[in-house]
Amino acid sequence: MTSYILRRLAQLVPVLFLASIGIWAMVYAVPGSPVGAIVGENATPEQIADTIQRLGLDRPFYEQYWSWLSGAVLGDLGESIQSREPVLDLILTRVPATIQLGLAAILVGLVLGVPVAVVSALVPGSLIDRMLSGWSALALGVPTFWLGILLILLFGVQLHWLPSVSTYIPFFEDPVGALENLLLPALTLGTYVSGIFARFLRASLLGELKADYVRTARSKGLRERDVVGRHVMRNALLPFVTIVGLMLAAFVGGTVVTEAVFTYPGIGRLLIQAIGVRDYPLIQGCILFVLVIYVLMNVLVDVLYAYIDPRIEYR
Amino acid sequence: MSGSWQRTRAAAWRVLAHPGALISVAYLAVTICVSLTAQWLLPIDPLYQDLASTLEPPGATYWFGTDELGRDILARVIYGARTSLLTAGGAVVIAAAIGVPIGLIAGYFGGWRDTILMRIVDVLLALPGILFAMALIAVLGRSQAAALVAVGITGIPSFARITRAQVLSLRQRDFVLAVEALGGTAAYNMFRTVLPNAWSPILVQVVILSSVAILLEAALAFLGVGIPPPTPSWGEMLRTGKSYLYEAPTYAILPGLALTLTILSLDTLGRTLATVLEDRREVVEDEAQ
Fold it and tell me: Does B263 touch chain A (CB under 8 A)?
């Protein structure tokens, strides 16, 4: 298993290498020059010369790329133009907020989505199934940012139950305050997640319920709860985990958008702010960081897949 | 030729036999017609600023109220449809024009061309689309062209993969080998023999990707990196509407509704199309046996 994980991680190297070239080169593709983007339009010749020196822009490009990459690997993502703080520090202060939002959304998605999938797979074609399928189509189709606005309108503006702007409060310091601030963003992102669960887990449950071993399990008198819970669910998770892997990109995008809706102080919002003020080192740092997290999540899904299915050889 | 036209018509009728698909097609037809003819037919102007009546609630003069500059929200939603549809259409054309040939070449020739092309596609597919689009726009600056290109590029991998899969299943069929044996060039064989037989999943992908493109364009505009103002766009309206939730709660509702209905319609249509075309393919193969 360990060697499988290591091999899977090694496969990331080419992807991350190509992506790192793209992220590094983006500053050079900015109309004008990277120096202009960094020092601004009204810079003195001394400032420009100083910046060129400091960034090493007078060196050959492969040396520049190498020093950027080796810095990035060691955690040195440069300095923010705007705040002059190290980019990595700025990112790391936002990480807990995003993790808390992501986990809460997945929880909401599980609670809303799994029962829907199980119920509608047990009575396919029925009125309940069609209603629940319609609901999952809505959950997947309604844009995250509009759903968030509607929730703010209802619970924030009309009912005054929950704040319409969410701040980050660590759950273990102040559970009540954290929930107040987390409920709407988690519901917004979690609805989308629940749509994924409802639609795709239903599909793979339906496929499994037709299998012979289900008939055997039923005919030997197992309770339906055990048939579904012990036998079917475990097998249905396999194709489903693949789908989850494919939907990860949408989840990452949804997190960025949700943070924007609620002005929630996570990494996504940091990236949007950085783009707004053209803080290129910060933009590069955020994109690289999110990308690394994203590919690691993909590896995690693959490892999970191998763990659930003992038939897969760890090759 | 008339046979394939009849089959196409039969497939279209079977799509429309699904109530969901029928409603979707009707909604999309109305949206497309109204938004494209609005400048000649409707007495509305999405850019006119009635500064005496800003953030008006829905009423007789302005059916859906006005925005923070006194512009007609209904007019901006209608013209926003045009922005959305044109961006999505253009993006899908870009994606298909690059993705389909990549898939054709990779699947038809195989070997090193396949390896190189699909590796590049895999890297592109490995990036979350919205992140890629944001990075690209951060570089290119905000413009209609940047949004179009950014959304278009994110669609290339799915076209390439689907076309390649189709080509692989057709490559060793007798009629393709026959053209090859008779001395038809590779380009002729790819575009005139293989592609016409591979169109149905590509068509489904066109519809589904249109909905993805509309959502992505709106999301970029909502994040403030899409098509710059004052061009009306649903995402941009939601972005500004969010700042006036207390003063004008209805501001953000109509653009979001139009956006959601468009996405749901395209999604429903795409999925119905997929079922119908898959059924048809099975029927054709049954007939052959």
Answer: yes
Whether pLDDT at A44 is above 80:
no
Contact between chains at B224 and A276 (C-beta distance less than 8 A) = yes
- B145 at interface of A, judged by CB pairs closer than 8 A: no
Task: Provide the number of CB pairs (under 8 Å) joining chain A to chain B.
Answer: 119
| Number of separate domains in chain B | 1
pLDDT in tens, B230-274: 888 888 888 888 888 787 788 888 889 999 999 999 988 988 888
Closest in B215, B241, B245 to A143, CB measured: B215
In degrees rounded to 5, what are phi and psi of residue A79? Answer: -115, 140
Which A-chain residues 245-274 have CB contacts (< 8 A) with chain B? 248-250, 252-253, 256-257, 260-261, 271-272
How many CB atoms sit inside 10 A of residue B204's CB? 21
Put simply, the answer to whether B130 touches A256 (Cβ < 8 Å) is yes
User: Which tens digits make up the pLDDT trace of B184-232?
Assistant: 787 888 888 888 887 888 888 899 889 889 999 999 999 888 888 788 8
Q: Which residues in chain B touch residue A278, judged by CB atoms under 8 angstroms apart? A: 138
**Cβ pair B281, B211 in contact under 8 A:** no
Q: What CATH number is given to the structural domain containing B277?
A: 1.10.3720.10
What CATH number is given for A88-308 in this structure? 1.10.3720.10
Contacts of B119 in chain A (CB under 8 A): 14
User: B246: Cβ–Cβ under 8 A, 6 or more apart, which residues?
Assistant: A157
DSSP calls for B115-155: HHHHHHHHHHHHS-HHHHHHHHHHHH-S-HHHHHHHHHHHH
**A184 Cβ under 8 Å from any chain B Cβ:** no
User: DSSP string covering chain A, please?
Assistant: -HHHHHHHHHTHHHHHHHHHHHHHHHHHHSSS-HHHHHH-TT--HHHHHHHHHHHTTTS-HHHHHHHHHHHHHTT---B-TTT-SBHHHHHHHHHHHHHHHHHHHHHHHHHHHHHHHHHHHHSTTSHHHHHHHHHHHHHHHS-HHHHHHHHIIIIIIIS--S-SS-----TTT-HHHHHHHHHHHHHHHHHHHHHHIIIIIHHHHHHHHTSHHHHHHHHTT--HHHIIIIIIHHHHHHHHHHHHHHHHHHHHHHHHHHHHHTT--SHHHHHHHHHHTT-HHHHHHHHHHHHHHHHHHHHHHHHHHHHH-TTS---
Q: Which domain range does residue B216 map to? A: 2-288
- Alpha carbons within 13 angstroms on the beta-carbon side of residue B236 total 22
B106 touches chain A (CB under 8 A): no
Which residues in chain B are closer than 8 Å to A142, comparing Cβ atoms?
260, 264
Instruction: Pick the residue of A26, A27, A147, A149 with the most B CBs within 10 A to test the interface with B by mutation.
Output: A149
For residue B72, which phi and psi values (nearest 5 degrees)?
-70, 115
